[in-house]
Amino acid sequence: MNQRRAIATAVTERERSRNRMRWVTVTVGAASLATAGVVAYNLPGPAHTTATNGTGSTPAATQPSSESRHSDDDGEGGAITVPSGTTNQAPAHATSGGS
Predict the structure, then answer these.
(1) Over the chain, what HEC string results?
(2) d(CA 32, CA 25)
(3) Same domain as 79, residue 51
(4) CB under 8 Å, gap of 24 or more: what pairs does 49-54 form?
């Protein structure tokens, strides 16, 4: 009978340990989920602003400005929106090959 009692005690202790580990796992998981939510909430917004021409949206840096368009360009007459804070900036690409 003493052996059965020892086995029953071992089984009970094992169940307690499993319940404790389950509780710790759930608690740590909930804490990490809450932390991820706080970090995501505090991240800054989008890093760039897009400009639209009649067909879709592309980054503003890839659109030619109205000053550099020529009369033979295929501009569809779409509007170009320049993000604030971009005045007096150099073009995003360099021209090479001219002599």
Answers:
(1) CHHHHHHHHHHHHHHHHHHHHHHHHHHHHHHHHHHHHHHHHHCCCCCCCEEEECCEEEEHHHCCCCCCCCCCCCCCCCCCCCCCCCCCCCCCCCCCCCC
(2) 11
(3) yes
(4) 49/81, 49/83, 51/80, 51/81, 51/82, 52/78, 52/79, 52/81, 53/78, 53/79, 53/80, 54/78
Cβ neighbours of 78 (radius 10 Å): 13
Domain count, the chain: 2
pLDDT tens-place string over residues 20-78:
999 999 999 999 999 999 999 999 887 776 666 555 555 555 555 555 555 555 555 55
Structural domain containing residue 62 = 46-84
pTM of the entire structure? 0.41
Q: Tens digit of pLDDT for each residue in 2-26? A: 999 999 999 999 999 999 999 999 9
